[in-house]
Amino acid sequence: MTTIEMLTWVRGPGLVIAIGIFLAGTLVRLIEMLMLGRRKDLSEPRNAASAKYGWRLVFTRFLPPFAASDVPAIAFLASYVFHIGLFLIVFFYVPHITVFKELIGFGWPSLPAWFIDAVTLATMIAMFVVLWHRISDKVKNYLSGFNDYYSWFITIFPIVTGYFAFHRLVLPYNDMLVIHILSVELLLISLPFTKLMHAFSFIFSRWYTGEAAGRKGIKL
Amino acid sequence: MSSQQTLAEALLQHGVTRRGFLKYCAGLASMMALPSSMIPRIAEALENAVRPSVIWLSFQECTGCTESLTRSHSPTLESLIFNVISLDYHHTLQAASGHAAEEARINAMEKFDGQYLLLVDGSIPVKDDGVYSTIAGMTNLEMLKESAKGAAAIISVGTCAAYGGLPKANPNPTGAVSVADIIKDKPIVNVPGCPPIPVVITGVLAHFLTFGRLPDLDRDLRPLSFFGESIHDRCYRRPFYDRGQFAKTFDDEGARKGWCLYELGCKGPTTHNACATTKWNQGTSFPIQSGHPCLGCSEPDFWDAGSFYKAFTAPPINVSEAVAPVIAGGAAAGIALGLANRMKKARAERQREHFTTEDLKE
Amino acid sequence: MSVSIKKGIQAFKEQIDAPIASYFNSCVHCGLCASSCLFYVATGDPKYTPIHKLEPMRRVWKQEYTFWGRLFSKLGISKPVTDDMLDEWQDLLYDSCTLCGRCSLVCPVGNDLVYMIRKAREGMVASGHAPQGLKEGTYRAMTIGSPMGVTLKSFKKIISNVEEETGMTMPFDVQGADYLLLMSSAEIMEFYEFIGAMAKIFAQANISWTFSSETFEATNSGIQIGSSDLAAELVQRIVDGAEKLNVKYVISPECGHAYTSLRWEGPNLIGRKYNFKVVHVLELIDQLLNQGKIKMGDKHIEKLTFHDPCQIVRRGGVIDEPQHLMNKVADNYVEMSDSGKLNWCCGGGGGVSANSHADELRLKTFKIKKRQLDDTGVKTLVTSCSNCRHMLEAGLEENEMDIEVIGLSELIAEHLQTNETHQDNKQ
């Protein structure tokens, strides 16, 4: 198979398979989870309009954890950097926006390539910091297993291959592009079955907790 | 018929001065990314080159490659060189026809056995024993195999010969394939493009004449000196790409300002050729400069790689349509599993036995 | 029924709901819950990471309620939850968790870990893996009516002592009284000044109140050990007693778990709403002060700080009232660091105080409270939960710290306007 043939496949059938598994898998996980339901709370609420506390927590939990002691700032600074970086890279780089435009019918303004390039570098560095912390921190190390390290790998691989492609490093552009797209497809098919699922479930987990606490008059 | 006249003699005959000739050699050296110290060597080699015999086979093609090579606005040095190579067989250009033409081919092959250059344009149909293209009762397939036997090297001119070309496009009814798919035991150079840039051909020939071997090739057997860079990396509109300024339609403000054609389907980033630097018609222009996105015509499979008018990063098939049933399936599976979960939980609740105070004693 | 691993797993299955499934789906092993946990911060041992305590429940969720989990389980390639595993996890789920809820404050994906621990204990109890001390306490609560074994007789004896000391009569079984006052056993046995304080407050506010001889115990060991069946029975006793007397309000005393069990879990345990409202004693006192039904006379001069009981403040929602009251009663109120809903647990909640196996570990955790207290430099510590008082006193003694611990209701009552002034004002 020639490189262009491979490129055509990964952009076409490959993408269909990956997106299919990704969306189907995510739907299955979410529905499977939500259908377990939650018993109605019969206690007298302090705040009957508790749903808004659910939504409130969805947003306020993005802030740094004030009740956590002795967490080195670099650990969660790196986490913020790579999450925000990843978001910017995926959604605001021109070639990516074109893909979305094809898939969902509309696009949006982009950020300049040099900016995305700088963000990518920062993101990669942050990801390595995050990995270092996972290995060296007592608690994280204790908790971590295959799910954690595999998730890290499938997240950084697209970033690195994208960076290499952009800078014409390691392999010729067309080849690097094939690998980059394949790496994204690997991420997509893995996401619903790893902890990366938190990208979707966090809305529910934060909402449930915020709502339950808000009902009692507690702003968590 | 071939002649023993050297190139220098032929040039002189055509009124090309020595100075002009050396300028050409310098130009050729630079285009092939050779150091200037090579110029005298190129000059010497070309001067003394005995006009090699060239057999040109045209198979399943549109004659565009020949047109490209022969359409010079003025007698240029490239076309002169091309003309003075002993072209012993060429459908369009030769004077002979019919049996006489075929005889000329066979004679050249025998006389210059092991030395002649075989140029091929057009793809080779192989389906149904290759009946879809024949010359003088012989299938292209047979003719290629026969002619390749004594060739010193084969140059596949144009994307059809190099990679199968447009005839190979889905569903490929004739079973079109490239030269390299059939001939495995001869050095092959692909000079793709639909059509290729004229000077690339002559550059390859000049290299062969100078060094007695074919130039350095990439993985797709293209001369690196002409196909080493992508259009994107040499495109004059690149700053617009980097700044995110794109023409959205063919006649909008961006298009008129000469902005990047990426969103209109330009395949520049994934296409390797010399169009952006060498350009066409003696450096006049190239598609992008004229406002049309690059088709990617020098890459294999460019014909099935997605719409010419959709950005190359856009999926070449309708993903949303293909994925919709999968999403529906996922939702259905989710609901089924969700129901199973609920039933299991309900069963656990039903089957629970009341925990009593006495149970604390266990 | 007899306890068994099968029943334990069944209990886990029953307890897992959509929120819990979303929590396990969202956990990214960031470890922040550890850095908010009393036990991890005090010892540095990663096994006390809250989400790790929930591993048995996570396994059950995975193997029973997820597609791949079920598949691997059927194929026999997943690790099931065994008796041995639950045995190993007993210390983690009981000794090293006070149900304080700090972990739920920090989780970036919003996991309510304390909610999960509470539910996970159901599985532990059903499989027989709860600490002996807690089992015994719960047994006493179920059979005698109090985890400390306080009978009505002993309660009545304490009452008569208080009546003698204060010269006030303590009403029992008054039909149609507005307020029913409950007590925790610890208050009855150790901090019964509370009774006199409340009587004083009620008198000044002119409130009709009563005790019930059928139900006086506010604490709920069933919740601490994690058995909804037992907890429901304990709540039902209160509900029966309160509804029999047809009271409007039941007052939850200075006891942490009493409030969360009665106010928040109770109706769900017995399956219906109450015919009365539940109010925490601090909520009531704050309300009475705001309404002018009781008035402060003077302020407490000494420097004071307040320890926020987890179940009342962070988990109960009575967050502002303690602060209001402290500011009203104290001349020199110094907030400790992390005061309010971020405060650190005393180390005794969630059944840990009844679990002698956890004593050593619990005392280690006091160093955090010690640091908070050292920073304030107080000699008097105020709180509003008798279990906290008990634990704090134990910790202070162990660390040879010269700090007195007093109850907030008592403190308020002490500084109320005297009767004479009140009479003057009325005229």
- Radius of gyration of chain B, in Å, reads 29 Å
CATH architecture descriptor name of the largest domain in chain C: 3-Layer(aba) Sandwich
Q: From the structure provided, what is the oligomeric state, counting identical versus distinct chains? A: heterotrimer
Number of domains of chain B: 3
- Number of separate strands of chain B: 9
User: Which structural class do the helices and strands of chain B define?
Assistant: alpha/beta
Question: What number is the mean pLDDT of chain B?
Answer: 86
Percent range of helical residues of chain C: 40-55%
CATH class of the largest domain in chain B: Alpha Beta
Q: Which parts of chain C are unreliable, with pLDDT below 50 for 5 consecutive residues or more?
A: none
Mean pLDDT across residues of chain C: 94
Structure description:
The complex is a heterotrimer of chains A (220), B (362) and C (427). Chain A has 10 helices and no strands. Chain A has 220 residues and is mostly helical. The N and C termini of chain A lie far apart (56 Å). By secondary structure, chain B is α/β, with parallel strands linked by helices. Helix content of chain B is 40%, strand content 9%. Chain B is built from 15 helices and 9 strands. Chain C folds into 3 domains: 5-130, Orthogonal Bundle (Fumarate Reductase Iron-sulfur Protein, Chain B, domain 2), CATH 1.10.1060; 147-288, Rossmann fold (3-Layer(aba) Sandwich); 292-414, Rossmann fold (3-Layer(aba) Sandwich), CATH 3.40.50. Chain C has helices spanning 5-15, 18-26, 38-43, 50-53, 55-65, 67-74, 83-95, 103-106, 113-126, 132-143, 152-166, 185-189, 193-205, 221-225, 228-245, 256-270, 281-291, 320-329, 359-376, 386-398, 408-414, 419-426; strands at 179-181, 209-210, 249-252, 277-280, 300-306, 330-333, 380-383, 404-407. The N and C termini of chain C lie far apart (66 Å). Chains in contact: A-B, A-C, B-C. Chains A and C meet through helix 2, helix 7 and helix 10 of A and helix 2, helix 8 and helix 16 of C.
Task: Give descriptors for this structure.
heterotrimer; A: 220 residues; mainly alpha; 10 helices; globular; B: alpha/beta; Cytochrome-c3 Hydrogenase, Chain A, domain 2; five-stranded parallel beta sheet; 15 helices; 9 strands
